[in-house]
Amino acid sequence: MVRLKKKRTAFVLYSLLLVLPALVLGGLHWHQIWLDYRAELDAVPEAAREAARRLAYGISENLSQLLDAETARPFHHYAQIFAIGDELDASLSLHYSPLVREELPEGVLAWFSYNLADLNDEKVGLFMGGRTPEDEADLQSEEPDLVEAAERLMRRNEHDGFLRRAARLGTVETVESNLVPVAVNRAQNDEAECFREHMELLNSVTVPINYSQFHLRFYEEPGGEPRAIATRWIVMDEFDPLLIKHAPCLEMLRPGFGLVQGMFLDPYWLFAELPVQVSDQVFSGSERFQGDESPTANPAERAAEYRFPVSLVRTLGFETDDDDTTFGDINVVIDEGEIESRFQAQSWRFFGVAAMLALTLGTGMALLMRSVSRELEQAQQTENFVAAVTHELRTPLSAIRLHAEMLLEGWVSDESKRDEYYSRIVRETGRLSTLVERVLEKARLSSKLANPEPGDLSDLVTSLKLDLEQRAGGDGADLSFQLKDGLPAVLLEPDAVSSILDNLVENARKYALPPATRINGSGPIEIRTGVHSGQVVLEVADRGPGIPSEELEHIFEAFYRVGNEVTRTSTGTGLGLHLVAIHAKSMGARASVEQRESGGSVFRVSFRGA
Length: 610
Ligand code: ADP
What we know:
Bound molecules: adenosine-5'-diphosphate
C-alpha cells in the first residue's frame, strides 16, 4: 500500500512538473501557429490592395517621368518649323522642329498639335519622331488611323469649351514671349512669307503665354481601338488689335490664341508591358500580376489564389467616358497555397518536436517508475532481512537462555537430560554463528576480487566429500556422489566451490529431506559433475518440494525467500543462494536452478573453461 502510494506520488509530481508544463506550452505554441496562419490568410486582401498600390505607383512613376520630360519641352517645338532663338529670320522654313527629327520616347506613338482659334481651315499637326518633313506623306500612309484620330480629337475638343477646360486644369507656367514662336507655331508653310515680311514688328511685341499641365485621357474609338492620350493647352493673352493692320497674318491669332498639344501614348505598352516590368520589380514571392487576357487555366490552382481586380485606366488617373471599358484591367493575384504549405511545414515541424518530446517524457517516466520500483523493492528486501535476522537471532538466543537458566538454577537433575540441554545450547550457538558468518561473508564477497585457477572439478568435489558427509552430524547416507572423470579443466577457486556446495547441500537437507516434504520413495541428494550444454557443471539435485516456477528468477537475489516470514516454517536468512550466485560469479561461472523432472529441483553451476 505504502509502495503504491509512493509510486503514485512520484508519478503525479512528474506529471505536474514536466508533463503538464510541456502540454500547456505545446498547446500555446500550436495555438499561436494557428493564429498566425489565420492572420496571414486574413491579411491577404489587404496585401493584395497594397501590392496593387505598389504596382500603380511604379507605373505612374514611369508615366510621370515621360510627362515631366514633355512639360520641359518648349511648346513651339510641337511644329514642323520653328524659329531658333525665338527670332524670325529669312531662313525660317528651313528650320525643322527638333521634335520632327527626335526619336520617339518609349511608350509614345506620335506627337500632335492643333489650335482651336480658327477651326474651319485648321489642320492637325501630327508629328512622328525620327522623320523629316519629306516623310510626312509616309506618315499619312503608315499611320492614317492616328492622323484621323487626331483630327477627331480636334473636332471633339471644339465642343468641349476649350478655354473653360484649360482654365479649370490650371496653369503650370506662364512665359513672357514675343509673338514669334506663337506665330510660327500657328503658321503653315504658306504663311511663312507674311511672317518674314513683318519680322521686326513680330520680334518687338511681347505677350504672356500660359502652359497647362498634361491631362491624361483614355477612350475607345468606335471601332474598338484603344487610345491613351496626354494633352496640354497653351493659351496666349490677347494683344493690341492694331497690330493686325500692320501684319495681316496675325489675324488668326486674335481671339486669345490657344493650342492643344500632346502625344498618343501606346496603350499596350502602358497597360500591359509596363505593368509586367514593374510587377517584376515590386512584387514579392507570393504576389503575381495577371493581365486580363491570361486567366489561370487550372481551376484547382485558382482555388488557392486570392485575386484583386484593378482598373489601371482609372487607377493611373486617366479620364474616361467609357464606364464599362475593360481595357487595362488586371488582377493582382496572391498565392494562398504558399501560406498553406508554410503552415503545413510548420505543423509537421511542431508535431515532430512534440513527438520527440513525448518520447523523451515517456522514457523519463518509465525510467523513473523503474528506479522507484527498484528502490522500493530493495527497501522491502532490507526490511525482510532485518525481520529475518531479528527472528533468526531471537529464536536461538531465547533457547540458549532458557536452557542455560534451567541448568544454572538446578532444575535439571537427570544426567542425560542435562547433557541434552548442553548440546542444545551448543547447537543454537552454532546456528547463531552461521548467521553472523553469512552476513559477514556477503559483506566480504562484495569487496573481494577472486583469483580462480584452472583445475579439475571432480577432483575438487572429491576432496570436499568427507566434510560434506559429516556436516549436519550425519553419516553421509543422505548424499550420493556421481562425479565424472577426465572433465576438461575449468577456472576454480576451492573456497568458493566449497561454500557453494555447503550452501546447496544444506538447503537440500533443510528443504528436501524432511519427511513431510519428500516426494514418495525419493532417494538421496545427488551431487553430480559432468558436461551440460557444452559446459562443465556441478549439480545438486533433490526430490524435495522444488521451487515454484514464478519464484525461479528471484531465488538468487539477496534476502529472497519463498513465501513470507509468517507462513514459513523453515529458518533461514535468504542469503545462502545469493552467496552461491556471488561465489559462482567470482569464478566467471554462473548459477541457475530448474525444476527437476518428476519433482524436486536441480541447482547447477556452469563453469568457464580454463
Ligand atoms: P534460506 O535457506 O536461508 O532461506 P537461501 O538463499 O538458501 O535462504 O534460499 C532461499 C529460498 O529458496 C529458501 O527460502 C527456500 O524457500 C528456497 N530453497 C532453497 N533451496 C531449496 C531446495 N533445495 N528445495 C526447495 N526450496 C529451496
